TrEMBL record:
Record keywords: Carbohydrate metabolism, Hydrolase, Metal-binding
Gene Ontology BP term (one): N-acetylglucosamine catabolic process
Keyword Metal-binding listed: yes
Organism: Paenibacillus pectinilyticus
Protein known as: N-acetylglucosamine-6-phosphate deacetylase
Binding locations of substrate: A142, N221, G222, R229, H253, L312, A313, G314
Positions bound to Zn(2+): E129, H197, H218
Top-rank taxon: Bacteria
InterPro entries per record: Amidohydro-rel, GlcNAc_6-P_deAcase, Metal_Hydrolase
Cofactor(s) listed: a divalent metal cation
Record note on cofactor: Binds 1 divalent metal cation per subunit.
Length: 391
């Protein structure tokens, strides 16, 4: 594992479709030059794009970051499995739980990062989703009401210390009276405050944005089944230009027209997240989970409660599926959809990988082929190291 050595990759640039030669040195893209090739030679090349950046992953392949305690080895396993899917940066997401359980979870993630520099580069931050969210049914989604509470700065600092200062995103609802001051303190400390699982009024959302909130967590999900026509918190978050919108584009969580409208309104601030749960990456079937009880993953990739198939039990698809969904429905070009899942979330979080496939950017790359709208990952590079190669 020597990422100082020089490597060269020839592939088609994901945006232009033109062949390029990428020179990787010391973990960064040292130089990118264009190459002249005939059509046949071009067709033989894979496409190269920035590594995927997923700001919300609850678990994968049977490993659940919210089934506490989990082991350090299980996190390392997820990192490796995500490379196969083109994900080179992600935020393990810890949801509403007891103060002790949250502390234990973030401390476990910190230990992995401390012990493995490559893991620390893949885990770009912890996303704490809750417990300072709305207790209302609908808004709270699957979060356990028993642990939902108003924002508490001392408590947050305790978790932040246990995490080794790795909590980078906090999803909260600004409906709590003390929210504005809390959001200001989080923002000043470098934590991205994201609005989600909320029943906030438009005024409370406006105040949250004035206080520093800059993102909406899975906009359109974790919401009430019915809303007053207007004003309401959906319109307000759409209208707030400073708020990026995270979207679950698995084809089940949001109808295409919602995806289309949010993407039009938000432009480069529309972001794809997976919000994948532990069942993601497992074969179709019936499973028992600690949050939702018995759940069913259908052959079509939809995850619902066994008791009521109308109710989704989380997402069972990663960003790659979301990209495929957007392109197959004609909602985005491949390049735009890919950026929604890579450079755009990185830009919102100011991660260095926001530069994408440009000289001097980190060498986080995915090489892939397309079969119709399907994306077949061939190789993944993290910080200049080839971490996955398809058989
Ligand atoms: Zn959620």
């Amino acid at each position: 594992m020597d990422n100082r050595k020089r490597q060269q990759i020839q592939a088609l640039h994901y945006r232009t479709g033109e062949p390029i030669l990428i020179d990787i040195q010391r973990g960064v893209l040292a130089a990118i030059t264009s190459v002249q090739l005939d059509e046949e030679a071009k067709r033989a090349l894979p496409i190269v794009a920035p590594g995927l950046v997923d700001l919300q992953i609850n678990g994968f392949a049977g490993i659940d970051f919210n089934d506490i305690p989990f082991t350090e080895a299980s996190i390392s396993k997820v990192i490796e499995l995500l490379w196969r899917e083109g994900v080179t940066s992600f935020c393990p997401t810890i949801i509403t739980n007891s103060a002790e359980a949250i502390e234990q979870a973030v401390a476990t993630i910190d230990r992995v990062c401390q012990g493995d520099p490559l893991a620390a580069q893949c885990i770009v931050g912890i996303h704490l989703e809750g417990p300072f969210i709305s207790p209302e049914d609908g808004a709270k989604g699957a979060h356990d009401k028993a642990y939902i509470r108003p924002p508490d700065w001392e408590l947050f600092c305790r978790w932040q210390a246990a995490s080794g200062q790795r909590i980078r995103i906090l999803t909260l609802s600004p409906e709590w009276p003390c929210s504005a001051e809390f959001i200001s303190r989080c923002t000043a400390s470098g934590v991205m405050v994201s609005i989600g699982h909320t029943a906030a009024t438009t005024e409370q959302i406006q105040l949250a944005v004035e206080s520093g909130a800059r993102m909406s967590t899975h906009l359109g999900n974790g919401t009430h089944l019915t809303l007053p026509r207007h004003p309401n918190y959906m319109w307000e978050q759409l209208a707030q230009d400073q708020l990026a919108s995270c979207l679950i584009a698995d084809g089940f969580h949001l109808p295409d027209q919602v995806l289309k409208v949010v993407m039009k309104v938000k432009g480069p601030k529309a972001i794809l997240v997976s919000d994948a749960v532990a069942i993601c990456g497992l074969p179709a079937g019936t499973y028992t989970t600690h949050v939702g009880g018995e759940v069913v993953l259908t052959p079509e990739g939809r995850l619902h409660l066994a008791q009521n198939e109308q109710l989704l039990a989380g997402s069972a698809q990663l960003q790659r599926w979301g990209i495929e969904h957007l392109t197959s429905r004609g909602l985005a070009t491949l390049a735009d959809a890919w950026e929604m899942a890579s450079t755009r979330p990185a830009a919102c979080m100011d991660f260095p990988i926001k530069e994408g496939v440009e000289a001097h950017a980190p060498a986080d790359l995915v090489l892939f082929r397309r079969e119709a709208h399907r994306i077949i990952v061939e190789m993944t590079y993290k910080a200049g190291e080839c971490v996955y190669q398809r058989d």
